[in-house]
Design a protein that fits this description.
The complex is a heterodimer of chains A (456) and B (483).
Chain A (H helix, E strand, L loop, with lengths): L1 E5 L3 H12 L3 E6 L2 H10 L3 E4 L5 H6 L7 E4 L4 H14 L3 E5 L3 H4 L2 H8 L3 E3 L1 H14 L5 E5 L4 E7 L11 H7 L4 E8 L2 E3 L12 E6 L1 H10 L9 E5 L3 H12 L3 E6 L2 H10 L4 E4 L5 H6 L7 E4 L4 H13 L4 E5 L6 H5 L5 E3 L1 H17 L6 E7 L4 E7 L20 E8 L2 E3 L12 E7 L17
Parallel strand pairs in A: 1-2, 1-4, 2-3, 4-5, 5-6, 12-13, 12-15, 13-14, 15-16, 16-17
Antiparallel strand pairs in A: 7-8, 8-11, 9-10, 9-11, 18-19, 19-22, 20-21, 20-22
Chain B lengths: L2 H18 L1 H10 L4 H19 L10 H19 L1 H5 L6 H12 L15 H16 L1 H8 L8 H7 L12 H25 L4 H12 L17 H14 L3 H8 L4 H5 L1 H21 L7 H16 L14 H13 L12 H19 L8 E2 L2 E2 L2 H25 L6 H12 L20 H15 L3 H5 L3 H4 L5
Antiparallel strand pairs in B: 1-2
Classes of the chains: A alpha/beta (456), B mainly alpha (483).
């Protein structure tokens, strides 16, 4: 697919990285030659220096043949104009990053009148993600499939958990047979486990299943799943604003600590039912006086990564059950993983995931569409949802007879309202939505999961 | 430095070279001459060496700019080394240094030869000699990038180090696709040229050999007196036009294929290239007329062929321009330095650098008049960044410096100044013939071994545009940990 990305910032770069690796022809437009330098050196993309609003630059980038134009500059207005111009010049689809909450409420009108196919708001997407992580107290990350009917939860195994040292084939008997462990990260290795795989302490496991079953699983393996009631948020930026709104919807109480007085006033006007504290969130005394120890969850959302991580560690030390930190730079993930913070989220990755999912959707609009796609384990494995249709070649064949490509696991089958955690004798029927866990590979066609020479 | 990855990549390149010898092997089988054995042995040696190199397991496959540069310059030295094997093994060129010179001259599309007599050589060997032009013209590694299935994003450094011009870029977002497009255009134009030559009455084998030489702007012929041997105006006109065409930046062809024909006229480099060619033809024709040839038509025919062959750095000849008046010879020597366009198969300094150098000079003058003035140098309506401008001036100095040192070394042989001067100019500019002993009807065989090594070095330096090769001589470049 031919994709033009305007704006080589955080989101632009990370999008270009994922999209070019998926074999799309990516062209980046940016005014700043320094930003483009990195992209041209490390990514297989074409870089054009110039203003993305300019017609001649867009023409140079081949907008008339482009399948998709993504405007991700820092300015909402510029993004809208870019998309509008791009569409007029012949781009098939357009995606704009629009982050100002003022526009967010008029999104549907904007989408229709500007002909936008998708609007991304990194802060809103990030807030949404945090809200979902908070509603799962002990899991690390939660992703949902089939409109929330199936969830994928990331859990870190500790020595006290009853599953530590148990082989997968014995889990059904010991704990629960209604969930499946789809991927395991051990030290630096990603494993798609088989029946004789033994779970060890410190493994990061990805559990897939019905939300209620996963909850049940969590309780059984000894994670005390208590519903979060009180959330403390440090930093009153846009994510905090959206997050407070979401938390209110799901019945959690939140307080926001923000250092800037004017912003506090603004927030208290926007969020009447949220407690706004004017203070320095990195100051211990402020945190203690706001009873940090009694909080169920702690979310650090300031503009500085280091501060967020330190504050999160401090909260963890003070016994807060669920700690989430936002970071902008994802450069040292391997170090951050070892810190013990429950969730570290980056808006740019969440945004990029969203768009990559949309792009895959576009690509496969006709056959075997990917419904959902999540990158798990730092993007080293993926959870993909396909819908089986007439063109699927292995309908009604028991799974044990299918010869799948190495590194592919059928994790769940959703049939109407029934969720099947597949065993050898289960079959895929037409209309089923099938969730796969895939390692080191990318599939754009459902039929590709069968090893060459397997069932046809 | 990722030495393991460099060795492994060299293994892949040598395996590619073995594949490139197959057409020549087939030719030698068709003609049933004694060179078949030489190709079979060379291919086996290449496969064994490439297999050993490919077995090196890199710790990480990541390559950075310095590794890309190292891969390109080492590949060129090695490819020429192994490419010389068929010449030695078949006995066509018994001395290895001579054979190495000939192969370097082939791959760098120079076309300078140490052979006094080529017509008696086996057909397969002659085919290989010209085929190296075709591959070397667009680049051995660009071909690998176009063909290999897994091309990493950082391979851009390899392409940039091998492609000529101050800022080689991609035509399309993917490196691999860019390589493919370049080779497709190249292949198509070569095919058209072969068809034209066949129509003009050249035999098939001769057409192939001369088409390779023209497309790569190389200049090896299978006739002792080059194109002049055919004495056929149609052939000369076709080759004159195609030499010019292969000296144009290939991205312009890609743009016109996409429908932007006007980019040709707007392109500053193309305008300069065309202007220089037309002016030189005019001046030389006037100079030759009544002096060397009797009719204006005859003068124009030889002047245009010689101008096109020298500026495109091909090096075919239809007449011995050694005997021309000095004004015409002086123009031709200047053209050797200028060369054709960036992003083409030609050598030399390249017109775009000349354009930029003139603009820099103009800016310096304006700066003296208005010391506080600020000027942005623009080419084709786009601002050129300062880094590139300083790169061009440094390149120019490095070019002249290597030229001067090579003249000094070559002078040890005691030949006359004009011969030495033009021999070095023609090697570093990848042209082929010079003046004096190395003129169009002469050759390089009388030079000493040392000089031949110096010439080979100059040819590779000129083809890779100096810095990839100079890098090999920097001690810090070889340290495992660069500090």
């Amino acid at each position: 697919m031919k994709i033009i990305i305007i704006g080589d910032g955080k989101v632009g770069y990370s999008l270009a990285e994922s999209l070019s690796k998926e074999n799309n022809d990516v062209t980046i437009i940016d005014k700043d030659p320094e930003a483009l330098k990195k992209a041209s050196e490390f990514l297989d993309v074409m870089c054009i220096r110039g203003n993305g609003v300019s017609t001649s630059i867009l023409m140079e980038a081949g907008v008339s043949e482009a399948d998709l134009l993504i405007a991700a500059t820092t300015s909402d207005e510029m993004n809208m104009v870019c998309c509008l111009t791009g569409k007029k010049l012949g781009a098939d689809h357009t995606i704009a990053r629009i982050r100002d909450p003022e526009y967010a409420s008029e999104l549907s009108i904007l989408k229709r009148d500007l002909g936008l196919d998708m609007v991304i708001n990194p802060e809103q997407a990030c807030a949404n993600e945090i809200a979902r992580v908070l509603s799962y107290p002990s899991a690390v990350n939660v992703e949902s499939f089939s409109k929330g009917r199936v969830e994928l939860v990331e859990i870190k195994v500790t020595a006290e958990m009853s599953i530590a040292g148990v082989k997968l084939q014995d889990i059904a008997g010991k704990v629960s047979s209604s969930v499946l462990i789809g991927a395991v990260q051990r030290a630096d290795e990603v494993i798609i486990p088989k029946g004789n795989f033994q779970i060890m302490a410190d493994d990061q496991i990805y559990v897939i299943g019905k939300p209620s079953n996963i909850f049940d699983f969590c309780v059984r393996i000894g994670i005390y799943a208590q519903k979060v009631r009180n959330v403390m948020i440090i930093g009153g930026g846009r994510i905090a604003y959206y997050l407070a709104g979401y938390l209110e919807e799901i019945g959690m109480k939140s307080k926001i600590i923000e250092i800037d007085r004017d912003r506090c006033l603004e927030l208290s006007e926007l969020l009447p039912s949220t407690l706004i504290i004017n203070g320095d969130g990195s100051d211990e005394t402020v945190l203690y006086s706001e009873s940090l120890n009694d909080m169920d969850a702690f979310v650090s959302l300031t503009g500085r990564d280091e501060e967020n991580l330190m504050a999160a560690l401090f909260a963890k030390q003070n016994g807060v059950h669920k700690v989430v930190a936002k970071i902008n730079r994802v450069n040292y993930t391997s170090v951050i993983k070892t810190l013990g913070i429950d969730s570290v989220l980056s808006p740019k990755q969440i945004t990029a995931n969203g768009i990559v999912r949309f792009v895959r959707g576009l690509k496969n609009a006709l056959e075997n569409p990917v419904e959902t796609l999540y990158k798990i384990v730092d993007g080293r494995a993926e959870a993909v949802e396909f819908i089986a249709n007439q063109s699927t070649k292995f309908l009604n064949v028991p799974l044990k007879d299918l010869r799948l490509v190495q590194g592919v696991l059928v994790a769940a089958i959703v049939r109407k309202n029934e969720i099947i955690i597949p065993h050898g004798k289960d079959v895929i029927k037409q209309g089923d939505s099938v969730i796969l866990i895939v390692k080191d590979k990318q599939f754009s066609d459902f039929n590709d999961i069968i090893a060459p020479g397997g069932n046809d | 430095m990722n030495f393991r990855m460099i060795l492994r990549t060299l293994g892949i390149v040598l395996c590619g070279e073995a594949a490139l010898m197959i057409p020549s092997l087939i030719v030698s089988l068709i003609y049933g001459q004694e060179d078949t054995r030489a190709f079979l042995i060379s291919i086996s040696i290449l496969l064994v060496v490439s297999f050993i190199l490919y077995r090196v397991k890199p710790v990480t496959t990541e390559i950075y700019a310095r590794d890309g540069f190292a891969i390109v310059s080492l590949s060129w030295f090695l490819v020429a080394f192994f490419g010389a094997l068929p010449f030695v093994l078949s006995g066509a060129i018994p001395s290895f240094i001579d054979a190495y010179f000939e192969t370097v001259s082939g791959f760098t599309t120079t076309g300078a030869t140490i052979l006094k007599e080529v017509e008696s050589l086996p057909r397969g060997i002659l085919f290989w000699r010209s085929f190296t032009h075709w591959v070397g013209g667009m680049g051995v590694l660009v071909l690998m990038l176009a063909v290999l299935p897994s091309v990493k994003a950082t391979s851009i450094h390899i392409m940039q180090a091998e492609s000529p011009g101050p800022s080689p870029g991609k035509l399309v977002p993917k490196i691999r696709e860019t390589g493919k497009i370049l080779y497709l255009i190249y292949f198509a134009m070569t095919a058209i040229l072969i068809a034209c030559l066949l129509l003009a009455g050249m035999p098939l084998y001769d057409s192939l050999v001369h088409a390779f030489g023209t497309a790569g702007t190389g200049g090896f012929s299978m006739r002792n007196t080059s194109i002049g041997a055919y004495n056929n105006v149609a052939i000369e006109v076709i080759i004159t036009i195609f030499m010019f065409i292969f000296g144009v930046n290939f991205s312009l062809y890609y743009q016109s294929l996409k429908g932007n024909i006007r980019t040709f006229l707007r392109d500053g480099e193309f305008r300069l290239y065309l202007g220089i060619v037309l002016a030189s033809i005019l001046l030389i024709t006037l100079d030759l007329n009544a002096n060397v040839f009797n009719t204006i038509g005859e003068s124009l025919r030889h002047a245009s062929f010689q101008v096109s062959t020298i500026i495109s750095t091909t090096g075919y000849s239809t007449t011995d321009f050694n005997l021309w008046p000095s004004f015409s010879k002086a123009i031709l020597v200047l053209l050797m330095f200028i060369g054709a366009s960036a992003g083409s198969t030609a050598g030399g300094i390249k017109c775009i650098r000349i354009v930029l150098l003139f603009k820099v000079i103009r800016r310096e003058i304006l700066k003296i008049v208005h010391p506080r003035s600020v000027h942005v140098v623009k080419v084709n309506g786009k601002a050129v960044d300062e880094e590139m401008l300083s790169g061009v001036t440094v390149f120019f100095f490095a070019f002249i410096m290597i030229f001067a040192s090579a003249v000094l070394l070559v002078s040890l042989d005691g030949k006359d100044m004009v011969t030495n001067f033009t021999a070095v100019a023609t090697s570093i500019g990848n042209v082929g013939p010079g003046l004096g002993i190395v003129g169009p009807m002469g050759n390089f065989s009388s030079y000493s071994l040392l000089s031949k090594i110096v010439f080979s070095f100059c040819m590779i330096t000129g083809r890779l545009e100096i810095f990839p090769v100079l890098l090999l001589f920097a001690p810090s470049f070889w340290k495992r940990v660069n500090i």
